[in-house]
Design brief:
Blueprint (H helix, E strand, L loop, with lengths): L1 H32 L12 H4 L39 H5 L3 H21 L2 H9 L2 H12 L2 H8 L4 E2 H8 L3 H13 L4 E4 L2 E3 L13 H6 L11 H16 L2 H7 L14 H5 L7 H5 L9 H5 L13 H10 L11 H5 L10 E5 L5 H10 L11 E6 L1 H14 L1 H5 L3 E5 L13 E5 L7 H14 L5 E9 L40 H14 L4 E2 H10 L2 E8 L5 E8 L4 H7 L5 H6 L30 H16 L16 H5 L2 H4 L6 H5 L22 H6 L3 H4 L9 H4 L7 H7 L37 H4 L7 H8 E2 L20 H18 L8
Parallel strand pairs: 4-5, 4-7, 5-6, 7-8, 8-9
Antiparallel strand pairs: 1-3, 2-3, 6-12, 8-11, 10-11
Helix pairs in contact: 1-4, 6-9, 6-11, 8-9, 11-16, 11-22
Bound molecules: S-adenosylmethionine (SAM).
S-adenosylmethionine binds next to helix 18.
Keywords: Methyltransferase, S-adenosyl-L-methionine, Transferase
GO biological process, one term: methylation
Protein name: O-methyltransferase C-terminal domain-containing protein
């Protein structure tokens, strides 16, 4: 069995190589027949999104689009031995969807094969002593050896000379570089002579070594961020990760398994409990000068009092490439934007400087396009980021600001959402920064502001399980069956369902978020559970085939009782343990970074839309023009392919053959459907409750309370008050069944559809003291004036006469309930 499984993996590799060859072959022949490549101007369709192949990890930010007209020579796959040339057609073709899909399979199959055949102890050594690889990568980057080797040219450089330039002893550096060469990160051309290869050259900042030595912090400026990313990952992130066991297992109870972002593995590694990572980057709790500054005083920038200033600046650049986590333009197919009502408002919450909104605004609201859908975008972030965003858009996309298509707004997402009833609240790579408890607060703020037909779109990595997904009942008893797109692809056996090593990027990120912030990437079932705990029901999961970066779509539903109770007890043991202002009107500043690193993980420079569009065009062309021919059309089949062709088990599998996918364009040229989203069926709340994941059923909700009690219940905190929408229903609601509704909702049939932005979730929210959309935009929207977070509206809310009595009643009931519970002692 094992040998036949190995044969199958081997065969998969053969087919994948054929697929790659086919694409390169076609690109070459297409070039000679259609010199202009004739890109299509296609738009995404729902039907096309599920079959678009894409790999994870995604392409390097430096990959550019390939114009087929630019070459006439036969194309070969880029050589591992040569420095990468991002402008070459050969390199550009590596991001062709079919090639990416094939690469995925090769990486997955090869990884699985080597783990199968390698002596287990060697595999254990690879995992447990692999830290040396990261350490050598760090030395490579910190000593600028890539730039040194680049200057040396193709004949390479002897370690004697590398030692002289870097100051690292000759034998030591030789051994480090040889380890890297052994793992294909460099080449050893002749004894002790090294040169860059395709991988190491990715770290090349393009700067002269003397300039870097003179101005170390300037090394990363205006680069693609790869070098800074290597520095960041191999320095504080690697060190933080080394302390995961201390944080999760060995630490005293007070700090063990903490949900506090400032009590993560990182805090153990750097002995700075209570100081968040970003605060630390700004110098708080950083203590003595960092290693870099001790070793090289030149790194102490401008005699900065912050001993971490080098790391701080490096972090900012390292994050600039995060848009390459997803396929270019994937956001366009991540949600049914076309079916939004014209003029709908999309709130990009924690949107950074608006890189993703830029794609959407150009696609759906371009000022020069009279037929555009005219969607409006409000990009919210911390004041410092908003300032940067306005500057960036004024430089390149000012007409969007001037015409009110795009608006920036300083807003702390832990506080009440000022834009109510938006058509879409969009959260891109936000929730992974935060432990569940905090992420829930962010989602609750959006739930609180949502209309019944508001949609929540969560974009980010969704970690696939390493086993087959059980759609109806997993460990957490989460039902995924009602979620469109949840059970999409299954790679051919015997590959792991999540493609193993080919998906490792998402898992690296997951552990990095855990080690640094106690955040995490989440699986789909974790995302569904988290969303449900904040009153959002996941209905769709849209992702590009082969990618683990996806878009989760959710609709408002009832908020579980447990959540409401938690909100309502800011002084509970749980809240003090989390150290989060659960009522969210306290000291919120300590939970947002004061870090002036531009965007805490977002882009710091707004890419030109033209460049983005070219990348998207690449994919359009890829599907339109370069549809992959059958592997048999390639003259010279790979020797590896013989077994695979004979293998019947692979032939019908869509995943095995990207050719079926390619027949349907990912970004196809359909006219946007202008019909408002009325066509979509919209279940009444009673249905939603019934179809909620089973795990929610045991969560009490106000719907489960007897009317006589629930009608009088008045939560004590302002947020809970608004979430319950008590004032919205002056009359106690008629409750038809214990599970049929959430308190305050009228038990009405499905509302007829209206344009998204106009409908209120009345049962829950009409009590809100917040300003309407238009009023609110006046308070937070900005253009050239001082930027600050708006005041927390909670503070102005006062209970109505008579409500205090009801509040006292519920408080009493809660205290009774709380006494009966066993609570963990607060460690603080
Ligand atoms: C990983 S970035 C994602 C940015 C953007 N959504 C994107 O995809 O490029 C996280 C963003 O959250 C913002 N952020 C962090 N804390 C925040 C808070 N309390 N309120 C609003 N934004 C916050 C950061 O400034 C940063 O722009």
């Amino acid at each position: 069995m094992t040998l036949s499984a190995l044969r199958e993996l081997h065969a998969l590799i053969g087919v994948a190589l054929d697929d790659i060859e086919a694409v390169y072959h076609t690109a070459t022949t297409t070039t000679s027949t259609t010199p202009n490549g004739s890109a299509t101007s296609q738009k995404p369709t729902r039907s096309s999104r599920a079959v678009h192949p894409y790999a994870s990890p995604p392409p390097s930010p430096s990959i550019i689009s390939f114009s087929p007209s630019s070459t006439l020579a036969p194309l070969d796959f880029p050589s591992l031995d040569e420095p990468s040339d991002p402008t070459s057609p050969s390199e550009a073709l590596t991001s062709h969807p079919a090639v990416l899909n094939a690469i995925n399979k090769i990486v997955a199959a090869a990884g699985q094969m080597s783990m199968t055949v390698q002596t287990p102890f060697h595999s254990i050594c690879d995992a447990t002593m692999g830290y040396n690889l990261a350490s050598c990568m760090r030395l490579l980057e910190a000593a600028h050896i890539v730039e040194i080797l680049r200057d040396a040219g193709p004949s390479g450089l002897h370690v004697r000379d590398i030692a002289r330039i870097t100051g690292v002893e000759q034998s030591k550096i030789a051994h480090c570089l040889r380890l890297l060469a052994t793992h294909h990160f460099l080449r050893e051309l002749s004894p002790d002579v090294f040169t860059n290869n395709r991988i190491s050259s990715k770290l090349d900042t393009g700067k002269a070594v003397v300039d870097i030595q003179h101005d170390p912090a300037g090394k990363y400026r205006s680069t693609n961020g790869v070098s800074a990313f290597v520095g960041l990952s191999t320095d504080e992130l690697q060190k933080a990760s080394a302390y995961i066991t201390e944080a999760y297992l060995l630490s005293p109870n007070a700090t063990k398994n903490s949900e506090n972002p400032s009590s993560a593995a990182f805090n153990f590694a750097f002995d700075c409990q209570g100081v968040g990572y970003f605060n630390w980057l700004e110098g708080e709790g950083a203590g003595a000068p960092t290693t870099e500054e001790s070793v090289s005083p030149a790194l102490s920038i401008n005699q900065s009092p912050n001993s971490n200033s080098f790391r701080l600046q490096r972090f900012g650049v390292a994050m600039t490439g995060t848009d390459c986590w997803e396929v270019p333009g994937a956001v366009l197919s991540g949600f049914d934007w076309h079916n939004l009502a014209p003029g709908s408002t999309i709130v990009d919450v924690g949107g950074g400087i608006g890189s993703t909104s830029m794609i959407l605004a150009h696609e759906f609201s371009h000022p020069d396009d009279p037929t555009a859908l005219g969607l409006k975008f409000v990009i919210q972030d911390r004041p410092v980021v908003v300032e940067m965003g306005i500057k960036a858009w004024n430089e390149n996309n000012s007409e969007f600001l001037e015409r009110g298509i795009v608006e920036f707004q300083a807003h702390n997402f832990f506080l009440a959402q000022p834009i109510r009833d938006a058509a879409v609240y969009f959260l891109r790579v936000i929730l992974h920064d935060w432990p569940d408890h905090y992420a829930r607060q962010i989602l609750l703020r959006l739930r609180e502001a949502a209309a019944t037909d508001t949609r929540l779109v969560i974009a980010g990595f969704i970690l696939p399980l390493a086993c087959a997904e059980n759609m109806s009942s997993g460990d957490e008893d989460v039902d995924l069956t009602g979620i469109a797109g949840a059970g999409m692809e299954s790679p051919p056996s015997p590959l792991l369902p999540n493609l193993g090593r080919a998906s490792s990027h998402g898992y690296w990120m997951d552990l990095t978020m855990q080690a640094t912030f106690n955040g995490k990437e989440r699986t789909l079932r974790e995302t569904v559970t988290l969303a449900a705990s904040a009153g959002w029901k996941v209905t769709e999961f849209n992702k590009i085939s082969g990618s683990i970066f996806g878009h989760v779509v959710a609709i408002p539903t009832h908020i579980p009782m447990e959540t409401l109770e938690e909100i309502d007890q800011p002084d509970s043991a749980a809240s003090s343990q989390h150290q989060v202002p659960i009522s969210m009107d306290l000291e919120h500043d300590s939970y947002i970074s004061r870090c002036t690193t531009p965007t805490l993980g977002s882009n710091t420079q707004l890419p030109s839309y033209g460049g983005r569009r070219t990348k998207m065009g690449f994919f359009r062309r890829a599907f339109g023009k370069w549809s992959t021919p059958k592997a048999s059309a390639v003259k010279k089949p790979s020797p590896l392919s013989a077994a695979s062709i004979a293998s019947p088990s692979l032939s019908d599998d869509e995943f095995t053959s990207p050719r079926t996918s390619l027949e349907e364009p990912h970004l196809s040229p359909v006219a946007p459907d202008r019909s408002p989203r009325r066509q979509r069926s919209f279940a009444p709340y009673s249905d939603q409750v019934q179809s909620s994941p089973p795990s929610l059923a045991h969560h009490a909700s106000f719907a489960n309370l007897k009317p006589s009690i629930s009608a009088r219940m008045t939560p004590s905190s302002p947020l809970a008050t608004r979430l319950l929408g008590r004032k919205a229903s002056p009359e106690p609601p008629v409750i038809s069944s214990p599970m049929s509704m959430s308190w305050g909702m009228t038990d009405s049939p499905a509302p007829s559809r209206k344009p998204l932005s106009n409908k209120r979730s009345e049962g829950f929210l009409s009590l809100s003291p917040f300003k309407s959309r238009n009023e609110a935009s006046g308070s937070g929207g900005m253009k050239g004036r001082k930027i600050a977070f708006p005041d927390e509206p909670d503070k102005v809310e006062k209970p109505a006469p008579g409500e205090l009595q009801a509040a006292a009643m519920i408080e009493k009931a809660k205290r009774k309930k709380a006494r009966s519970r066993t609570r963990p002692a607060s460690p603080f």
